Known about the structure:
The protein is an alpha/beta fold. The protein is about 40% helix and about 20% strand. The protein contains eight helices and eleven strands. Strands 2-1-3-4-5 form a five-stranded parallel sheet, sandwiched between helices.
Amino acid sequence: MGETAKLLLVDDDPEIREVARVLLESEGFQVMEAASGEEALQVFTPDVDLLILDVMMQGLSGYQVCARIREHWNAPILFLTAKTRDTDLMTGFSAGGDDYLTKPFSYIELLARVKGLLRRYQIYKGKSDTELGQYVEWRGLRLNRRQNQVWKNEKELNLTTTEYQILRLLMSCRGKIFSAQSLYESVWEEAYLSSSSNTVMVHIRKLREKIEANPQEPELLKTIWGKGYRIE
């Protein structure tokens, strides 16, 4: 994947950390470990490309760590969770997470999720030079297509990688309606499941909180009932 990606693996189970670290390092990744949320915040550095973050830990939870990280950094976050209820998963997305794996998970699946998130992150950080036109602008929004930078009325916004990818897709195809399925398959690059519409909905809501003057009455990112979403 080009230069070596740096990962931070946070889990209070030493066995999970050991097996996952060996697997990821065998794929060429540089892996740091933390056994708690507090330790994760201490060892996290801005050059971390991806966090693998357990949700249920004593002390700071994965959700709390994610929220702290999101105050300053946009690196993708993959939650590891024993919870499967939609409300629990939505809490993770609302905190700023990009994806999740439900325990117990296969390490092949872990590797696939990590590679997918990193591929998307590195492309949108500007490590691809195939884009045409660096900026796209519309109604006070200005988006840098080559890296995760968005401004609203000249003020830079702090978007997660997934929020940025959604906005980038919608702004690049302004006026086109994207169904929840097409958004999910384009951004997450995974097959659409029945639960995926909730995932999209939560990310749309979080994105509106950052780009709209009044998220309850959006003027930019519109819902076209029964069809999907578009920028207009």
